[in-house]
């Protein structure tokens, strides 16, 4: 069942901080970094040493942003736009958001799980409805919502053409972004073009292909860096960030910069 407009509005109102209207002005001269919060799935998430060399593109995004634009990566393996909300993860992000921050949202990989009612959403109804919760919640906190279409998987047809894998979800997000006047990073189209340019064999060096695994969804360090570069370029193109906010867009980023911390206990 689709979420009602009342549910969306209630979620936005609930996100307002207590006493917001009574809060005093910030200390004169103080500058707080404007943080970019990331809500998404395993393609963007932080990975740990037990998953190496698998790498989420959110791990590489800080390499392309100025130091006063920190990234708070809340993306989690296996989550959809729905399950991220239902598990209270969006509430946790909204509680941390401050005016001037950004909320970058990328979902669809797990929204597509038609056999899993805890994650599945329908592109033109519940998927858009859940995304509205992120948009409304961010705006209620004085933060800027940003939507990103899902990065593409590695899939080619017999003729060597990169094949889209996300069905109607990217189109549904594009339509919602236009309707809600939200900045859109079209990672689906950009990553599909990137995989097409690299070709069947070269793309294997961007995905998590190891001696024991052939993973065409998740990235290794070169792939995560390449996708993070697309994200940074789109943040600049869409004027979410300015020229002074992004760095190294044309530089080679050493894969040694990627590190995997020990798993959380």
What would you say this structure looks like, in words?
The protein is of the alpha/beta class. The chain contains 8 helices and 7 strands. It has helices spanning 5-14, 57-60, 81-86, 89-96, 123-140, 169-180, 187-202, 221-237, and strands at 36-40, 71-73, 102-106, 144-148, 183-185, 207-209, 214-219. Strands 2-1-3-4-5 form a 5-stranded parallel sheet, with helices on both faces. Helix 5 links the parallel strand 3 and strand 4 (144-148). The relative contact order is 0.17. Residues 1-30 have low confidence and may be disordered.
Q: What is the averaged pLDDT score? A: 90
Number of strands: 7
In percent terms, what proportion of residues is strand? 5-15%
Count of runs of 4 or more consecutive helical residues: 8
Structural class: alpha/beta
* Rough outline: globular
Between the first and last Cα atoms, what is the distance in angstroms?
37 Å
Portion in helices: 25-40%
Low-confidence stretches: 1-30
Largest sheet: 5 strands, parallel
| C-alpha Rg (nearest Å) | 18 Å
Element pattern in H and E: HEHEHHEHEHEHEEH
Can you list the strand order of the major beta sheet?
2-1-3-4-5
Q: Can you give me a brief rundown of this structure?
A:
The chain has helices spanning 5-14, 57-60, 81-86, 89-96, 123-140, 169-180, 187-202, 221-237, and strands spanning 36-40, 71-73, 102-106, 144-148, 183-185, 207-209, 214-219.
């Amino acid at each position: 069942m689709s979420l009602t407009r009342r549910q969306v509005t209630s979620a936005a109102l609930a996100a307002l901080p207590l006493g917001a209207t009574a809060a005093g002005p910030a200390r004169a001269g103080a500058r707080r970094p404007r943080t970019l919060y990331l809500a998404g799935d395993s393609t963007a998430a932080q990975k740990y040493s037990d998953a190496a060399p698998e790498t989420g593109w959110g791990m590489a995004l800080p390499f392309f942003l100025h130091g006063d634009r920190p990234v708070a990566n809340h993306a989690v393996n296996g989550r959809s736009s729905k399950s991220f909300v239902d598990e209270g993860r969006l509430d946790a992000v909204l509680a941390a958001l401050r005016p001037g921050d950004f909320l970058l949202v990328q979902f669809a990989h797990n929204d597509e799980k038609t056999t899993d009612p805890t994650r599945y959403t329908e592109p033109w109804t519940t998927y858009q409805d859940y995304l509205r919760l992120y948009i409304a919640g961010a705006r209620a906190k004085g933060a800027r919502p940003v939507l990103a279409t899902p990065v593409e998987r590695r899939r080619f047809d017999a003729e060597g053409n990169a094949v889209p894998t996300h069905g109607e979800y990217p189109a549904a997000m594009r339509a919602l972004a236009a309707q809600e006047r939200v900045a859109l990073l079209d990672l689906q189209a950009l990553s599909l073009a990137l995989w097409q340019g690299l070709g069947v064999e070269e793309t294997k060096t961007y995905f998590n292909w190891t001696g024991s695994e052939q993973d065409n969804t998740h990235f290794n360090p070169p792939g995560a860096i390449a996708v993070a570069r697309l994200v940074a370029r789109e943040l600049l193109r869409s004027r979410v960030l300015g020229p002074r906010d992004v760095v190294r867009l044309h530089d080679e980023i050493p894969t040694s910069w990627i590190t995997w911390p020990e798993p959380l206990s």
